[in-house]
C-alpha cells in the first residue's frame, strides 16, 4: 500500500528520498512541448511511436510527428485545461492519420504541456464511465459510513477486476487502517489491519492529495528514461500529475514482498484533505484501459463526495441532537435554583448524545456522581489538574493516566474523560468518564521496525515481513469523536446559559407554562364534552332499529366499538394521520372474518387526518355491518370492492361497490345507519355522499375534501401480501443454498443486482463472472449448486454453460433482456426464463418451477 517518495517539499523529510521523476512506465509514451509546440522532453521509447530516435525528436516542432487534425483536438482541449493539477483526456485519437487509435492525457508542468499517450483498447470500447452513475446510485442507499466504504470497495472491484480492493483510512498519527475490502475468493483478507505511518510517508500523502489515481500494471515491467534529464535551467521535468510516472524501486520491492504484481490507488478526499485511499492489489499483471482508469478516477471523486455527505449528515444529526438536548435541559431547569437539582435527569439526556460510563457534577462545592467514576477525594485532585488543562473550554482525553499520574490509581473505574466547565469559576465542572477498553490492534508487521538502515544509508527500506503483529493497548478508553466533542461544547454553552439565566426569564417561563396548562385543560374539557355528546346521540338514535334490549345493546355496542377501534388506530400513531386500508381491514376482521377474502381493496392507501378518521370509521362500520346482514356478504357468493382514488385537487374518493349477492331493496325508511352513511360525511367533513340501492348490489360513492387527507401512500406489504405472494421452491431450497450460486452476466451492475437478489433469497455464496470461459472454470472447480445465466453475453451466448450444467444435473435458470426464447427452443425448453428487469419475486417463481 505504500507509494513512492516524491520530489515534494523534501525539506520536511528526515530520510533521504528516493524518487524516479526522470523515468516513466513503459506501457505509454511521453512528450513535453513548450507553448510554441517545440518538443522539450520525450521518453526514450518514442521510436516505437514515431519511428525515430528519441534524441532526434527533442527540439523539433511537434507538427513533424503528430497529424494536424490531432494537434487541433489537443489544442482545443488545452483551451479548457484548468489549473496545474488538472488533467484533460482525449480518447481514440488518430495521431498519424494511419488508422491507429491512441488515448491521450494532457496536463501542464511548469511552462510545458505534457502529453501522455497510450494505445486505445482494441475492439468494442465500452463506455465504462456510464457504469459509475448506477454504482453511485446504489451506494447512496448505504445506511452507515462502514456500509458505504464496503459498497465502494465492492463496486470498484467489479469495475476494475482487481483481486483485492481495500478502503484504507488514515489516522491522525499517519498510520492507517483497512476499514473495508472486497476480495476475489482466493486471496487473504487485510480488513482490520493497521499499517505504520512510514508505509505511506508524508510527502507521498501530499502527492496523493494532488494526483487522484496511480497505477502499476506490472511490477516487473521495465521503465524508460526521459531525455533530456533536465531543462536548460538544470531542473527535471515535474511529473507530479503524470499517470505514467515510474514508481520508486522501494515501492516495487514493497509490492514484491507482498506478492503483488499489479496495483492501483484512488485517493479519497474530504474537504480538500486526504482522508484515505482505495487501494487495489492483483496477483498477476493487470493492464487497465484508459477508459476504465478514467471511470475509476471519476468513481473515486463521487465516492469522496458521498463520504463527505455521509459524515456531514451524521454531524448534522449530532447538531440536531445537541439542540434537542439544549431544549430538554433548559425546560428541566427553567424553574431556576441549583443546576444539580436536575442532575440525574439531564445526565440521562446527555448520555443519549454523548455516551459515557460515569458522570460527575461538581458545582458550588457539591459533588454528585453516577456510574463508574473516581471517588470525591480522587476527583478533587483531578479538578485541580483540570483547572490548568481546560478551565474555559471542553477538554478530553482517552488516556488520562498518561497525563495525570494520580489517575493511574483509578484506571479500573475510568480511563478517558471529557470535562465541561459550567461556570466562570474554574472549579465547576460536569465531567463524563469512559471505562478502560482493552483491545488488540493488529498491525501488518511490527510498526516499530518499519524504518531500517538500508544499503544506501538512512533511507526508507521496505518491510520484508507482513506477519500479523499484535499490540495490546491498556489504559485507553474508547476515543471521543470530533462530533461528540462538538456536541459537548454546545452542551457547555447550554449549561452556562442555565447557570446565568436571570430570575425574570425563569418567572416568564413559569407563567407561559401555566398558560399552556390552562389551554390544555380547556381543550381536554372540550374533547370530553364532544365525546359525551356523540355517545348520547348514538344511544338516542340506535333505539330505532332495535326491537329488544339485547338487539339494542348489540347495535349500540358495535357502533361504540367501531369508534373505539378507530380511536385506538389514531392513538397508536400518536394522533397522526391513519391508514384507510387498515380501517377497512379492521372492520372486515371484526364483522366479516369468514368473508375477508371477498373484500377487495384497490388503489392507493389514504392517510386520513384524526379529526375525520372517526367519522369515516362510523361510515365504514355501517357499510360493513349492512353488507353482512342484508348485502353481498350475507351469503357465500357476494363480494365487496372498495376503490380508493384521489382527485386532481388532492381530495379523497371512495367507491364502495357490492356485487353477486342477494337482490337489494331500498329501505322503506331511513334509519340511523342509513343516515350515518348518507349524511355524516357531508355534514361533518363538508364532502359528498351518493348512495344507490341498486338491485344488483349497493353502490356508494364518497368525496372527502383534501384538508382531511394527509397523503396517499403505496399500500403496506401486509395489505398487499395476498397479491404479492410468489410460489415457494419448498424442499429444493436447502439443496440450492448448500453450495455456490453462479451468476453469469456481462454487465457488472446487473450482476451485482442479481447477487443482492439471490442473497436476499437465502444464498450465502455467490460467484459473478462475465464470460463463458470464466463460468466453465468455476463449474469445473465443483461446488456450484445453482446458476443464473444471462442468455446474451455480448459476442457470445451462455449456451455452452447451460449444456455443461445440464450434463452435471445442476439446476439453473435463464435471464434475457430481449424477451425471446431462442436459446430455450430446443433442449432447454423446460428451463425457466425470466425477463429483465426482474425482481426477487420473479426469481423465486422461476426457482419454484425447477421442481416440475
* Residues in helix, %: 25-40%
- Rg estimate, integer Å: 37 Å
Main sheet summary: 7 strands, antiparallel
CATH architecture level-2 label of the largest domain? 2-Layer Sandwich
Question: How many distinct helices?
Answer: 22
Distance from N terminus to C terminus (CA atoms, Å) equals 52 Å
β-strand percent reads 15-25%
**What is the CATH homology-level superfamily of the largest domain?**
GAF domain
Secondary-structure content class: alpha+beta
| CATH C-level class of the largest domain | Alpha Beta
Give me the count of strands: 33
Stretches where pLDDT is under 50 for at least 5 consecutive residues are 1-20, 453-465, 721-729
Form type: extended
Question: How confident overall, as mean pLDDT?
Answer: 78
The count of domains is 5
Fill in the CATH topology of the largest domain: Beta-Lactamase
Walk me through what this model shows.
This protein is of the alpha+beta class and 852 residues long. It is built from 22 helices and 33 strands. A seven-stranded antiparallel sheet has the order 1-11-3-2-6-5-4. The protein has a six-stranded antiparallel sheet with strand order 9-8-7-13-12-10. Strands 15-14-18-17-16 form a five-stranded antiparallel sheet, with helices on both faces. A hairpin with a 2-residue loop joins strand 26 and strand 27. Helix 8 runs parallel beside helix 11, helix 13 packs antiparallel against helix 15 (610-629) and helix 15 (610-629) runs antiparallel to helix 16 (672-685). It starts with 22 loop residues before the first strand and ends with a helix.
